[in-house]
Amino acid sequence: MSTLPKIAWIGLGIMGSPMSENLIKAGYHVTGHTLEPEKLDRLTAAGGTAAGSVAEAVRDADVIITMVPASPQVEAVAYGPDGVLENARPGALLIDMSSITPRTSVDLAAAAKEKGVRVLDAPVSGGEAGAVEAVLSIMVGGEQADFDEARPVLGTLGRTVVRCGPHGAGQTVKAANQLIVAVNIQACAEAVVFLERSGVDLTAALDVLNGGLAGSTVLTRKKGNFLNRDFRPGFRVDLHHKDMGIVTDAARAVGAALPVGAVVAQLVASLRAQGDGGLDHSALLRAVERLSGARV
Q1: Residue 1 — pLDDT band, cuts 50, 70, 90?
Q2: Which residues, at least 6 apart from 154, have a Cβ–Cβ distance to it below 8 Å?
Q3: Can 7-166 and 173-292 be said to share one CATH topology?
Q4: CATH code given to domain 7-166
Q5: Where does residue 111 rank: exposed (0-12), middle (13-18), buried (19+ CB within 10 A)?
Q6: Which neighbouring-strand residues pair with 136?
Q7: Which residue in 25, 39, 115, 174 is the catalytic one?
């Protein structure tokens, strides 16, 4: 009989499915719930157990992991008679790996404490590829003892796992992460259009740029997207638009000016308004092309 904690996984999307499968490969018993039946079929094919509801999934779990799109979805699965807090056993550890507002995480931790449920906010960076390869960067907020307990589980999902402070700290760091990523993608997209317009060998140019100070994980991960104009979603524009709203609001609350971030947030919003919200965020290239008068 395995001595590993029993895990409930809520949300089996682009990130959640491969992450839950990595836990199964590591020997964890994973019971999952999501709204898409085909994702439940994928989970069972990987060796997991499908649950028909959140309540069923979490009832016997030691660790509950939620990975859903935004604050409203976290609140929908956490609260109410069929939610996590009403059905988890006292002492269970809820790890929310969604990217949501820091305030939502703080409020969730307070509500869970009244039910005897412990909470960590643990958003991730690395996209679909990082989830598949289990090399995510995981930024965590919550109590040190709960983080120490969760460390083996999180270490199965990511390469860099760091507690950043109390409840909400993980989400604050994730907001900063999304700011940096968006600005970086925008800069890369502008460079690509500039290089193409100048008649330079784009593949060679991106290779040499990525070997110097201009190199970045963003360029490494997204270079193929730019070269092949492959905008199949690894991380959708819609979600990055949501995240830019989070960082803009959070920065305003603490009095931090984000002049470049504010411009990029508007460019992401514009891309989404033009119907590209379902594409990968590397599709910011399309926005730059439109501004440059290119046919998209």
Answers
A1: low
A2: 95, 122, 138, 140, 161
A3: no
A4: 3.40.50.720
A5: middle
A6: 158
A7: 174
Q: What is the mean pLDDT of residues 217-242?
A: 95
pLDDT at 122 over 90: yes
Q: Which amino acid appears at position 235 of this protein?
A: F
pTM over 0.90: yes
Residue 123 CA to residue 88 CA, distance in Å, equals: 21
Please report, for residues 99, 202, 211, the alpha-carbon distance to residue 268 in angstroms, rounded to integers and kept in the order given: 17, 24, 27
Cα–Cα distance for residue pair 62/6, rounded to 1 Å = 5
pLDDT reading at 152 higher than 90: yes
pLDDT 10s digits, 18-40? 999 999 999 999 999 999 999 99
CA–CA distance, 294 with 287 (Å, rounded to integer): 10
> Is the pLDDT assigned to residue 295 strictly greater than 70?
no
Spans of all domains in the chain: 7-166, 173-292
Q: Is the pLDDT of residue 155 over 80?
A: yes
Asked whether 290 and 296 are in contact (CB, 8 A), the reply is yes
What CATH number labels 173-292? 1.10.1040.10
Q: Do the Cβ atoms of 202 and 188 come closer than 8 Å? A: no
Query: Does 223 qualify as catalytic in the annotation?
Result: no
pLDDT at position 256 over 80: yes
d(CA 33, CA 44): 11
